[in-house]
Amino acid sequence: MTPRGRDTTGRPLEPDEAERERLLGRTRMGGERGSVSEEFSGKVVAPEKGAKTGSAVDSVNFSQAVSEEVADVQSVVRDSRVYEVLEELDRELVALEPVKRRIREIAALLVIDRLREEMGLRSERPTLHMSFTGAPGTGKTTVALRMASILHRLGYIDKGQLVAVTRDDLVGQYVGHTAPKTKDVVKRATGGILFIDEAYYLHRLDNERDYGPEAIEVLLQVMESERQNLVVVMAGYKDRMEEFFQANPGMGSRIAHHIHFPDYTVDELLQIARLMVDQQGYELSEDAVQALRDYIERRIERPRFSNGRSIRNAIERARMRQANRLFEANRKLTKKDLVTLEADDIRQSSVFSDTQEDESEEVGDAGAQAGGDGDGAGASSEVGASALS
Predict the structure, then answer these.
(1) How is the chain split into domains, by residue range?
(2) 148-205: per-residue pLDDT in tens?
(3) 138-157 b/e with 16+ CB inside 10 Å = b?
């Protein structure tokens, strides 16, 4: 348990405690005001049950990494098992090399910061709020959850969880509703990462009566007062996020790390698809591999394409067509029949229709996209190496 008056790294808390509790809507006596609202509709993503979630607070003694003014970096990395998370990123995410490199740099900063503190050197807690920009399906939520694990293992946050929300979870519909709603979300996220997808929708210039600015004001306060044990990650399209920060300079000044997630290439998307197929216990015939490449080349040019998420949806549809084909085969099925996706299972997609009258593929992807950038990162639905979110 974190000592009272100190954060998870052992540093004294900076903000006034009364102000801190006021911002979070807490009371020392508990009761209704300090309870968690049932209105919350966001997503709480915790590490998988049984996963190796090392906690620096409980298991890593940073003082043992320092002796006779010599610091053992590898000791901290080994005991905190940070490499496990970094290796997971390499293993589970195709491409995204600039993103992986930036996450490694942040992890290095955190490790060295802890060692400086143990040596008695002046060490101010790094600012950890982040902005993830990129199209849907490029891995933002997945990386945010891995970042939560790194921060937890090094003792910067109490829990390795991520709370994913959108505007609807933060902004109320009438006067006096927004602040309590936003504070409730902050309370749920404290100790972990608060991931705000499409954060720019909090600021609507075309509506003077919008309550979004009230939510922004609460977030600005807690990003400063709660920064010892809360990391805010804002995500969305790059151009819109830049406009959002220009319109809200106070928000932009609190973001220390801006990380862009590029779109995947056709080859990378094909690699993602083959990994998904393999992880689900299927195989692609030789013709199916070419059909899948043709599908990706066509789908990437059509509306509402969502990178890894669109590929996942395409694989699910191919599985359904294969199941229907085998169901109607009227013969005994071999194991090879059950595991093989054929070219026709892919080429039946409406993407191959020249008329484009049937837009079911695009509509399905749009539905996933409208659901926000996250898709259960870290859960079993996060198929392999794809960066689906």
Answers:
(1) 17-260, 266-370
(2) 999 998 889 998 899 999 999 999 999 999 999 999 999 999 999 999 999 999 988 7
(3) bbbbbbbbbbbbbbbbbbbb
- Alpha carbon 219 to chain centroid, angstroms: 19
Beta partners for residue 258, in sequence order:
131
**pLDDT mean across residues, the chain:** 82
Give the single-character DSSP code of 38. Answer: T
DSSP codes joined into one string, 117-179 = HHTT---PPPP--EEEES-TTSSHHHHHHHHHHHHHHTTSSS---EEEE-HHHH--SSTTTHH
Q: Is the pLDDT of residue 56 over 50?
A: no
Show Cβ contacts of residue 28 under 8 Å, excluding neighbours closer than 6 positions: 21
The pLDDT value given to residue 340: 98
Q: Which amino acid is at 366?
A: A
Tokens 């933060």 found at: 170
- Both tokens assigned to 360: 């079911």
Backbone angles phi, psi at 195, to 5 degrees: -105, 115
The CATH classification number of 17-260 equals: 3.40.50.300
Write down the pTM of the prediction: 0.78
Per the CB < 8 A criterion, the answer to whether 101 and 203 are in contact is no
Q: Are 82 and 153 in contact (CB under 8 A)?
A: yes
**Domain covering 266-370 in this structure, CATH number:** 1.10.8.60
Residue entry with tokens 């929708």: 201
In whole angstroms, what is the distance from residue 120 CA to residue 66 CA?
10
Element (H, E) at 45: strand 43-45
